User: What shape does this take?
Amino acid sequence: MYHVFKHKNEYYWVFLIIFVPVIGCAVYLISNVYNKRDAEKVASDITSIINPTKKVRDLESKLQFSDTYQNRLNLADAYFEISDYSNASLHYEQLLEDKSQSNVFVKKKLLESYYYAQEYEKAIEIAETIKDHQEFVNTISQFTYGLCLEKLNRFDEAETNMKVINQRYSHYNERLVLAEFLLSQQKNDDAYDILNDINAESQHMTKPNRRIYRATINKVKDYLNKA
Assistant: This one.
């Protein structure tokens, strides 16, 4: 009832809620609360796709109005989402100046930003400040650290860090990259073990996952067919 009067919705909702309380409340919530929230979320997502820089501009304005840790983090993440890794890095770097925060999450995002910006030495430097942290070990971030090491021809260290991603029924794209790295190092047996695992696991994927990973699965099959 409070929601009806606050939002000045049609008066017939009052009678429906009073005289058929359970059904009336359910219908009202579905029609006027959840659907509106879903619609707003969908509209926001569509706007981000059509005009990806709008979200950045809005967050820049918000940061100018209130320069808080969370507002700067939101802006850094927004830059990252549109692949503007230079600006994302600048804001992540500024966040690290706040020593009251643990900043492990920010360092992980900064590592990825540096990697995509091809600043591999910076990426390695930041990774080595958190490489023993629980939130870093056995994650995509450690795998990314391995990719950076590979770019600097530190192949043994790269392999050690990239192999942590080889977990069954997950990380299919990354495991394909790992297999390709192992092939480049003439470690064919290890590489084909991973490729065979991915191929076998793909037989048990749901239809949505098979669509998502179709390109990866097809590439795995190409490697196996050529073996």
User: Anything to note?
Assistant: The radius of gyration is 24 Å. Residues 72 and 94 are 9 Å apart (CA to CA).
